[in-house]
Structure formats: C-alpha cells, structure tokens
Specification:
The complex is a heterodimer. By secondary structure, chain A is α/β, with parallel strands linked by helices. Chain A has helices at residues 41-48, 70-75, 92-102, 107-120, 136-148, 166-181, 193-197, 216-222, 228-236, and strands at 3-12, 15-25, 30-35, 56-61, 64-65, 77-80, 154-158, 185-189, 201-206, 209-214. Chain B is α/β, with parallel strands linked by helices. Chain B is elongated, with a radius of gyration of 28 Å. Classes of the chains: A alpha/beta, B alpha/beta.
Chain lengths: 237, 370
C-alpha cells in the first residue's frame, strides 16, 4: 500500500474539517477523492502532502509518516494545487527548470527532459512563452507535467480540471493514464462525475468523513444508479 | 538547489515592470531630493517691524534684519495689534516691536529694550527665528557700543566675540550630515522590506504552496530570497557612494572595507526583520501596515532628524533596540569623522546582536507546514 491513512483527523478550533478517515491506496492506482465543496477534501490532501499537520491519527505516504517525516514524504510526491501555482512571470521552460532543480535534477538532465516533455504535451512552441500568456487548459497540462517531472511515486491532484474545456479535460485524463501506466499512483479530486468514472476506485467524503469507498461500478450497483452523478447526489445532498 | 532559486528571483525581479525602475530611482531621490528637503536650517522668516521710534537707529536695525538671509522684511506696522494681524494672516512669522524713544534711551541711558514675538505654531521656526533675531540684535548693540564709547569717553564692558568652528563638516552643510543617514533608509527599504513584500506576495498568489510541497530546505528557500536583494543592495550602495562623490564631492573619510563590512552586517539585520514580518503576515495589506509601523518608529527614534541625547531617558532606551540607530551612527562616523573599526565596533556588535536575534527568530518561525 502506497498510501495508508488511519483515523486521520484535523480540527481548526471547534470545527472538525477531517473526521477520523481511514483508507489505503495501492501502487499504480488512480484513486478518485470525491466530495462536495467544504467536505474537507483539500484539508485532507494537504495533510497527505505534509503541508498541514494532523490533529490526531496517523498516515503513511510512500512509506513515510506524514506527521513525523513530512520532508521525506515531499521528496516522493508531486502536487498540483487547486489554485494554479506555477510562476506566471516565468517562461514555460523556466518553471520546469526551477522545480526540477529544486528536486535535485542536474542541468543537462533538465534541458533534455524538458524538450521531451514539452513535445509530448504539445507545448514545444510555447517553450519561451511566459506562463501568464497561456490559456488555462494549457497551464494545467504544464502544471501536471511539472508535478510529475521528477518521477514521484505518487501525484496528488486537487481539482486539476476545474474551469477547463471538455477537450482539454479529455487530454488531461489521457496524461493521467499515461502517468499511471508508468507506475505513478494518482490521487485526484474532482467535481466532474464523468471523471470519477475513469478512476479505479473512488471515495466520497461528506462532512469530513468518508461515506463510501469502492470501484465506480460497484457503487452504481449498490445505489441502483445509472451513473456516478446519481451516486454522488444521493450521498452528498 | 540554491542556484535555481536565486536564478528565478533575478529573472522575476528584472522582468517586473516596476521594481528595477524603483531600484534606480531610489538612490537618485536620496541624493538629489531628500538632502535638500530634509534641511532643517530655517530661512526666509518673514518679519513685520513695528517701528514706533522712526529714528535713524531704528531704521538701521530693521534694515540690518532685512539684509540677513534668514529674514525677509514683510512690512511695517504702526501698532502691535496691526502687526498681529499680519501674523494671523500668515504674512509674517515674527514681530519686531521697537518702542518709542529707542534711540534716545540708547544715547542717554545706554540701554533700551525691544520686543520680539514669534509665531510658535512651528516651534522649529519660532525657536530658531527668535535665536537668530537675538543674535542680530546683539550684533547691532555691539556696533552701536563701538560707535558710542570712543565718542563719550566712557569705559565700556570688554567685548567677547565667539568664533564657532564646525569640525568634520566645516560649513555645517546639512547635506553632508543627511546623506550617510539617508543611505541607511535606502538599505532598509531595499534589503529589509522589499524581500518581505516579495515573500508575502508569493503567499497571496499561492505559489509558495507549490514550493512548500517540495523538499526544499527552508534555509535554502530563505537564502534564495535574500541573496538577490543583498546583491542589489550592495550595487545600489556602491552607486550611491559614486554619485555622492560626483555630485557633492562627499567622499567617505573612513576605510571603505570597514564601511562595506558594516553594510553587510546591516543588510543581514534588516533582512531578518523583513523575513519576520513576512512570516507573520498573510496578506500584502497586513505586511505593508506592519512595515509602515516599524519604519516610522525606527526613523523617529534613530537619531536621523533629532539627536538621541536630547530624548528623554525612557525614549533613549527604545533606541537601543533599533538597528537603524546603530547603522546611522556608524555611517555618520565613518563618512564624516573617518572613524575606523576600533571606533565603531560597539555599534557593529550591537548590530550583529540584532541580526542574530532577528535572523534566528525568522528562521525558527518560518514554517513549511501548518
């Protein structure tokens, strides 16, 4: 198990944002982490990434304790936040170079891999473009490539396709599948239920708790629903 | 790893539409505008003369005052009330009231009195104005005495003349006094508050989260933020030295190595303060407010404008915790007196202590996770 979470809780004062969640994710899996706005998904994800300290409970990500060894966790993961957070005033290649450099890749390796990556995602012509001039869909593709550039064991994606058009979303999911094929575990939150169908397994979070966790197929059977949208509506109302 | 962070910071700084211009505009403002604007010499005080004597001597006195560069004759009035109106209207800052029989009393009794009233709303102007006026009147009295005594055959009082000499700033030039201290403010803004705003803006935009989720060591991240500003700070400092030599012929009397060592200690100190502010601020608005708070307090109790020795004791205690105070002292001493390392080591040690506390605190309070 590459992610193993046990009774993890996060409180902000009196408010319990994440309430004793327990689950695990296997290597190479595409795991959908669903829930309504404010259900606690982002808070939980920030804990898994070592950005936020749990109030109680335990979690191991890539074999490291998220509370005690957050820096080791960070070495082994990639993260793409809900808010676009590459540098808008840096060029496409400069953003890649910066983050790859931080993860310890050397200069030659970086420039060689930059070209391969940009060709694959079709942004080779934009190599010298400032990131702020790219359309959102392209930015998200770039952010994802940056998040997996150092070949992490797991990549955490927080609503990666929010505000992106259907064609770009489709391309984005193709990239996710490619990453999964390479053995990278994908942990993704989304509000698009058609995307939930693409996941190996999904969990649905309601008010800080994980209500259900199973494959999309079995969840649909269990709730007698014809798609994930109906499942979600029944639970997250 | 650090290399990539510094590279990024420089790219962003020079790509910014505003910051490079500011970095160049600052030293020019500090040299060309501020030293003139912060001049505390009082000139052009408007005086209304109430001459109730209308004698040769009363006329001579008012002309002597009008001829001084400190005073302008705003006009004449016939009574004190009339004179007061010119003060109330803002046409005059001072009244010189020459009583009737001014000349007669001087000749017959050898003494008389005149009244000076100053508008003390601006106490600098009021106080210094009265002082200057006093000096001119005394000078006038001396002239009169010198003229009368030989004629009357009386033995007068011995005349003692004081000749002041300004050491280290012979012409008491205000610019020479202010420029070394204004450089301190420049360094504070460039190396303390600019990086603070930079970090808070990354918090606001959200890019810092992407950095925090990487295994970057916080020490590297902080150095990556500060080193570019130290480089810029040293560049601007050198530029300012060159310009002040070129424009005003003001060349540091002290050892340049000592001066640069002090600058290095100072920029690490203010960077610590800036970092500390950025650690505790989550928005630009908050950071700006805190910066203004500290900047104003630090400047007012730094000895920049008013001497620390004339502050009440409790206020002097505050200045011990003000890094600006020490650096302003160092700069003025090394620039004007040519003080060496042995003369400034106390101030330098105090600065280093400030640096140790501020940088240490900033490093401990910087958090990658919450």
């Amino acid at each position: 198990m590459i992610i193993k979470i046990d009774n993890l809780t996060k409180c902000f004062g009196d408010f319990t944002a994440v309430d004793h969640i327990t689950f695990s994710v296997g290597k190479g899996e595409i795991f959908g982490f669903l829930g309504a706005n404010g259900a606690g998904k982002t808070t939980a994800m920030r804990m898994f990434c070592g950005l936020s300290k749990p109030t109680s409970g335990e979690g191991r990500v890539a074999g490291y304790d998220i509370a005690k060894q957050p820096e080791m966790v960070k070495k082994n993961i990639g993260y793409m936040s809900q808010k676009f957070s590459l540098y808008e005033d840096l060029k496409v290649w400069e953003n890649i170079r910066l983050f790859a450099g931080i993860y310890g890749l050397d200069g030659k390796q970086i420039s060689r891999k930059t070209d391969i990556t940009l060709k694959r995602i079709g942004l080779m012509n934009e190599k010298n473009t400032l990131v702020k001039e790219l359309p959102l869909g392209w930015k998200q593709k770039l952010a994802f490539s940056v998040a997996i550039f150092h070949e992490p064991k797991i990549v955490f994606l927080d609503e990666p396709t929010g505000g992106v058009d259907p064609i770009a979303r489709r391309q984005f999911w193709e990239m996710i599948y490619e990453a999964a094929e390479k053995g990278i575990t994908v942990f993704v939150t989304t509000h698009y239920m058609d995307e939930a169908e693409y996941c190996n397994r999904v969990s649905i979070m309601v008010d800080g708790r994980i209500k259900v966790l199973d494959t999309p197929g079995r969840l649909k059977d269990r709730f007698h629903a014809k798609n994930m949208d109906e499942v979600f509506r029944q639970l997250a109302r | 790893m650090l290399r990539y962070l510094i590279e990024k910071e420089f790219k962003q700084t020079f790509r910014n539409a505003f910051i490079p211009k500011m970095i160049l505009a600052f030293p020019f403002m500090v040299l060309l505008v501020f030293p003139w604007a912060t001049n505390q010499e009082i000139k052009n005080i408007n005086v209304t003369v109430i001459d109730r004597d209308h004698s040769a001597w009363s006329k001579r006195l008012s002309e002597k005052i009008g001829a001084s560069t400190y005073f302008n004759l705003a006009g004449y009035a016939d009574s004190n009330d009339e004179g007061m109106i010119t003060v109330e209207d803002g046409k005059a800052d001072m009244l010189l009231d020459i009583p009737p029989d001014f000349e007669k009393n001087l000749v017959n009794r050898g003494e008389t009195s005149i009244m000076i009233s100053a508008n003390a709303v601006n106490i600098m102007k009021g106080g210094l104005g009265s002082g200057y006026m006093n000096a001119i009147v005394q000078d006038f009295a001396g002239e009169i005495r010198a003229e009368i005594i030989p004629a009357s055959g009386k033995t007068g009082l011995p005349l003692i003349q004081v000749i002041p000499q300004g050491r280290f700033n012979v012409f008491l030039d205000y610019k020479v006094f202010m420029i070394p201290a204004l450089i301190v403010i420049l360094m504070t803004l460039l190396c303390g508050f600019l990086p603070a705003l930079n970090i808070v803006s990354e918090k606001e935009i959200g890019t810092i989260e992407q950095i925090n989720v990487t295994p970057v060591r916080k020490f590297s991240f902080i150095l990556g933020k500060l080193i570019p500003y130290w480089v810029i700070g040293l560049f601007v400092f050198t530029l300012t030295l060159g310009l002040s030599a070129l424009i005003y012929g003001l060349v540091p009397q002290g050892n340049l190595l000592t001066i640069y060592l002090s600058v290095l200690v100072y920029i690490t100190t203010v960077s610590g303060l800036g970092l500390l502010i950025s650690n505790y601020s989550s928005t630009m608005q908050q950071a700006m407010f805190v910066i203004f708070f500290f900047l104003i307090i630090f400047i007012l109790i730094s000895g920049l404008f008013t001497p620390i020795s004339s502050m009440p004791h409790w206020a002097q205690v505050f200045t011990y915790f003000n890094p600006l105070r020490y650096f302003i002292e160092i700069m003025r001493m090394t620039f004007l007196k040519g003080s060496g390392f042995m003369d400034i080591w106390r101030q330098l040690a105090a600065l280093a202590a400030c640096a140790f506390v501020l940088d240490g605190w900033a490093l401990i309070s910087y958090r990658k996770s919450h």
